[in-house]
From TrEMBL:
Chief location: membrane
Protein name from the UniProt record: Membrane protein
Subcellular location, record wording: Cell membrane
Membrane-related topology note: Multi-pass membrane protein
Example GO biological process: phospholipid homeostasis
InterPro entries assigned to the protein according to its UniProt record, in alphabetical order: Acyl_CoA_acyltransferase, LPG_synthase_C, PG_lysyltransferase
Ranges of biased composition (kind: Basic and acidic residues): 640-650
Protein source organism: Phaeobacter gallaeciensis
Location of region: Disordered: 620-661
Compositional bias segments (type: Polar residues): 622-635
A GO cellular component annotation in the UniProt record: plasma membrane
Segments passing through the bilayer: 29-46, 58-83, 103-123, 144-167, 173-194, 206-234, 240-258, 293-309
Amino acid sequence: MLMTIHTLPLSGAGRGHLWTSLKDGFGAGFRWAAPVAMTVLCLWAFEAKLGLPSLAELGHTLAALPAWGWLGASIATAISFWALGRYDSVAHRHLQTGLDGAAARRAGMAAIAFSQTAGFGLITGTYARWRLLPGLTALHAAKITALVGFTFMATLAAIAGVALVLFPPIQGFGWIGGLLLAGFICAVAASFWFPSLRIGKLRLRWPSLIALTALMGWTLIDVVAAGTALWMLLPDTVQIAWSTLVPVYLIALGAAILSSAPGGAGPLELTVCALLPSADTGALLGALVAFRLVYYVLPAALACGMLFLPGMGRAKSSAPTDADLLGARRTPAADLPATRACAEAAIIRQNGGHVQALGLNQLAILDSPQCTVAFFDPLSGHTPEVFAPLAAYARQRNGSACFYKCGARTGTQARKAGWKILRIAQEAVVRPTTFSDSGSSHRQLRRKLRHAEKAGLKVMQAPASLPIDQMGAIDAAWQSTHGHAHGTTMGRFEPGYLAEQRVFLGWKDGRLEGFVSLHATPGEWCLDLIRIVPDAPDGTGHALVRTAIAAAALENVPRLSLAAVPDHRWAKHTDPGLRRFKSCFAPRWEPRYLASPSWPQMAVSLIELLRLVHRPGPVQPVLQTSSDDAGQTSDAENDLLDRYPAHNELEQNEIALRAAP
């Protein structure tokens, strides 16, 4: 049969489209062919340099392995895959898929078993996870696979670095281990200070320190168990110390993963034999074949059964817990209870926090990249009930949990619950209804007030319409003198934020000299912002606060907080003038604590809080609700209500009863 091929002239656009198609096709073919070519190249190099044993020799080596070696390697393999399943749980929590339970762990084990044998890990791993977890989208499955692969290589590099420093298989490999370890430490530090990275419209969020620690632990268990499985399959003719073989296996595993060869075949064997030149090559290859049977073929067969036999390995449904039955609700910061005990909880209106109900208890919470911070004491509910749910809530985010600046009562109950507590601050408190300037304890205050009065300073409560422009100029002048304003745990200048506070202004000759703002509830006022121009009359700050105390007394407010000052070993080096200023009012000093489930979580929380205070993000404007919008909810709020159902009527009554005096 004769075929005639007619050629047609192509336009410029047609030629460009053809070239693009050919280029894309070539690139895809190369990506598929390169791993296979890598395997063939490594096997050719192996044969050329060392020589491959015959099938009869391999069979003899396998038959000579003792039964206890096969059994021990199988147990070590099971431990390795158990750790890999936990690895997937950490990845699911990082991406907030809500699927970090037993089913996700089984899917992770099966996906790794399948992909490490089939090769092309990103594709095969994504398919396996998507297939085994019905609630997981293909996009999320790809993100999980990419995150697992990337973080595994990073933590493997760190572990290999430590192993090479402690047990170098070849002279001079110690400095390579040092470089790997130093690179990992620098990467972790960078991920802490810059927790997210933007690439165009793509935003990448690095795993938290808690997540990295967990990933490091699971990776260590995985690779040590896998290396032990290989060591237990060594024939009697190969005498290699465990401490020598495991670092070699770590390096070989990294080479195998980077090659993307199916099962790492070729790069793994070539690297192991190259790093152990004194060992019997034939016997060592026999051990590697046995290792592949135990660590690759057997898990891959089980994974294929899970993938292609529906129902195999499916998780059994568990009974709902008390937390499941009670439900939860996450609401915006604007929904803070107006009658809350701690007025300062309103700080979450500016720092991105929210109100979180855990069972029947409500907390003012900020979710940061590293930890979940519960501000002050619980807003409502029974305090002993909040500690376990708060720790679980933080664990679902791969974060540490802490109570920040909680009172002595909450601190005592936290200690009874097994949490660790640390005294970090003292809060200055006065009683407006009984406050008086008389007495020796207020001598310094009276002197400052006289100075302000002689200078002609007039202090008054701000009207509903604030002089925002003038106040903004004062804030800018204050920052030029004192440096940028700290944030997260303390307020910053923002018109919507100030509009919800009590504000007092100090005037002299028609010029605004300074202002203070206070969070206000019926039971407490709390000092927030103090902004004074550098050349203001002496005593301006004292006069502003004294006027606020008098206004609180007129409204029968029983408690006014001058906010807290640091109270720890290095406190005397942190703004001693602030303590002197508040001491002029002879306040009652109340201790404030940081509470966390463990000392490591306490350390992470402290470091994260320092970062958040000294390197806060942009000021988040407080959105004002007009009267026309009263009683209506936005689309975002409706989405929150759908995702976090409200308490039922019985639970609301229980909350009200517990909040009653």
